[in-house]
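To whoever is covering the structure queue this week,

Two jobs came back overnight. Logging them here so there's a record in the thread.

Job A:
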Amino acid sequence: GIFGPQVVRLPRAADLVPPALAFRIINEAGPGATLGLLPPRRVAGESAAGLGVTPASPRSTVARADVWASPTTGLPLLVEVFNRGTAQPALETQFLQAGPWTPDAGVLTPQRGPGTGFTKTTPGDFAGVLKNLDDEVLPVRLAGFSRQPSPVPQIGVYGSGLTTFAVLTFRRGIGGRLLGDALEAGATPLTYNEGTGAVASAPLVNLVLVHPYRSPDTFLLVGLVSKTALERAGAVLAAKPDQDQ
């Protein structure tokens, strides 16, 4: 647990329950997103109505998201998110049971399993992790993406909605070790005229590391955009990290 006001809003398990995830996807798919009806599907004991959401930007890793909701209450019961080029969902979350009852308080209290522990920290402790990041000035635009406001100046946030990625600048030895570990773990090497790097992928998320030859720092780019888009952004940082592109 974290005690005290949080400077950075950390992910929570509740972010992945069907209503929260459906709301975020529909809200961030963009004004040009395509919506379509899907055949009804049996979910949580009822015939749920389906809605397909296709993001407007082809640079997003999210190809589409299918949402099934209760036709009587509108409560999303099942969400499937598909990566590009895959027939199976990269992320799926659903309710197995839903109804207008009030659950017992014991059900809402997490039970620790054998061998689990509890760790608490403070926002100050969390902020200490950011000391590994350099405060190099990042451009206001990067390979066609605009920089968004961030509560942490050391982290650049680019794009919007389902085409968002972050840029972190790691200091000297830390960044070098990070790049070396990524290559050793199987990441694909990248070679730029002005630097070297690596690219790796996970379902819905791509990652690029860039080390400019002229700089002791290493840039980490990660988010919901295509590898091609991240590699282009990495090329800009390798060449002119102090200039708007």
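Job B:
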Amino acid sequence: MNSAEKLEKMLRLEKPKDRSEIPYFPQIITWAGTVSGISQKEMIFDVDQNIRALDLTFEKIGKPDVMMCTAMRDTTFIMGIPVRLPGKDLEDNALYQFVESDLFTLPEGGEYERIRKMGWQNWNGELLCRIQDPPFTSLEQLFGRFALMGQNAGKMAMHFIPQGIQPLTHTACAPVFDTLSQSHTMEEFCYDLYDYPEEVKQVILECTPAVIGQAIGTAKQVQGNRVGVYAMRSSATFVSPDAFEEFCWPGLKMMIEAFWAEGITTVLHADGNWLPMLSYFTRLPKSSVHFEFDGDTDMRKGYE
């Protein structure tokens, strides 16, 4: 079986005959610099060096079946949170650092009404402009940055796909809940879940369709059928199972079902401990969602 066949078989939840049919996906980002001897600064600011570092790494460890075709600089850009970069704010070989800052502009729950009036895409675009260093002063700059991100992704995909390496996803997005948590800081957002629960839920339900629409549009544009969903604040590491059911699950369920209806599989980037939340996903169509766990989720119990 080639890499594409292995991946499709896995996505259909068909059991492999042996280990040779299991797709190999090492999620390598910064470690490629250690293996290749290329600095973190070079990988961040030069997509060609980023690709070269991955090539050198794969020469040493073997080519994977699947990889994430996102340039490091674009990973730091699209997170929607201020970042310190090697070679700019840090030493050349330091790892990039996200800096959690309160980016809300109005106190006492006022930001949620502001989001609803502006619309999610306008609000999120404004936020992305504000956190750049130096800040973007026009939407044209933001659109140009997204265009560059697309060019970088295409460059990486066209380099690795001919080698038989498949992209894990064809586009990505984040649930509204998780973006709110990151942009308001976890502590302040947790207070809001207690003080302004209805306002938070209203924003999630009203704005999630905009996230869905943009992701589906991008996936269809590139003729892709897998979307990454970065739900990094919805695990038991950050919220209780009760809070997950009340605030996180409605938006996640809406996203996964909407993608599946369009023939798109969700790959949930599941940092933290998701074990207490996994039973919710058994209510969804079979094979509609797959998970990227880290060491905090017991994978054997998760599989069960």
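Note for Job B: The mean pLDDT is 96.

Please reply-all if you pick these up so we don't duplicate work.
Q.
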